[in-house]
Protein 1
Amino acid sequence: MAAEKHSPLEQFLIKPLIPIKIGGVDLSFTNSALFMVVAVVLVALLMTAGMGKRGLVPGRIQSIAEMAYEFVANLIKETVGAEGRKYFPLIFTLFMFILVGNMIGMIPSTFTFTSHIAVTFAMAAVVFVAVTILGFVKHGAHFFSLFVPPGVPIAMWPLLIPIEIISYFSRPISLSVRLFANMLAGHTLLKVLAGFVPALGVAGIIPLAFVTALTGLEILIAFLQAYVFAILTCLYINDALHLH
């Protein structure tokens, strides 16, 4: 029991905070839901405080808000072009939600909701469905040409079209697994190394140094994973708008 209590995977357990059951369906408010709400509130407060009273000389909060806005705006401009501006709210929301969620998870005794495949797959599924609908609305039946690589002989179509279809439908899987796996693996490794610090006594300074360095790396990965999710979403939107 003691081993289970101190398991590195214990930090990923979803625990109900407010039990709610309706018709046999468990709709409990969990620690995962709590930190999702915290992430949304923090992003809302950041943008409200940063953009509410804009000054000629921006303060720290305004600078952070403007940097986040410009970063996502430039990302969309470089990957999708001017036509992608209308999708800024979606990309910005995803980027900030994932980024803040990842950063919250770096604080001891918190919960990293992005380390659960159910959360990351839900976001990836929304992106996949929205992009697919966008493609059909924009191009109609011509959207199917996305599965035919340009310049490929017709004789090669029976081989390449199934590959393109499988690749397309694997997008939400790869998008969600990439984020969830990186956060899960990084936090697990941190927990394992941190467990050696008190156990080794004076020699624990060695794993402590690794934990410190790995924490810095995890913060970088937290940002990179939010960036990767956002840029892949932009690329998928670009495919839907411009096909090949």
Protein 2
Amino acid sequence: MFSNFHWGHGITIFYIIFVGIVVTALIASFSVDHSLVVDDYYATDLAYQSRFDKVKNSKQSPMLHISKDVSAHETTIQLKTDKAVKGSAQWYRPSDQSADFVVELKGKETTVSTEKLLKGKWILKVEWTIDGKTSYAEEQIFVD
């Protein structure tokens, strides 16, 4: 059976297997979503220091409280202050960028219905300004 097998056959078999592996890897790479987490990745990276300062501000005066009511399918964002508040809360879905949305904060307490949200992990990114001082905080929320 192997009496007619020589090194030329071995090289041919190796080449066919190699090409098969490369083609399989190429086909597999086309099925993967290569989109970035954010569209403006470089601009976000350049603004990292300002985000770090905002996180530092939120830790110096902790006034953000996020509560989740599972039975009512609601998440409440509370800012414990008597001053005027301006800000927004971004609901970020790590696995599906098209599901992301932003809610403007309405005063000291904002309630968001989670009933129609996709089930799974969300990251709630809250940014608020009080007396010209901007703060930022993130919290993971799991929607059931």
Protein 3
Amino acid sequence: MADRVRVCSPDDVAPGQARRFDVGDLRVAVVRIGDDFYVIGDRCSHEDFSLAEGEVWESELEIECARHGSTFDLRTGEPCSLPATTPVPVFDVEVEGDDVWVVVG
């Protein structure tokens, strides 16, 4: 059964930025593009490196791993460039008032 967990406030993530949060044992990157939020696993599938430290490509809806340059689609987790070839998990996200919730499990 899936759990809905509050991860932050909308103001905790600036537009065009990503920020890492821990949800239990799960490490996620919350990405904000305008008023839209995306939640993606925060470990690059090519090498265990934080995606939240990378650049957000707003018009492409992608995030770039700062270590080797792989980009990942924020909607699907699919890698969009090498060297990564394996997707990272994505999570449903809900924004209600002053809360950003992620659905995990």
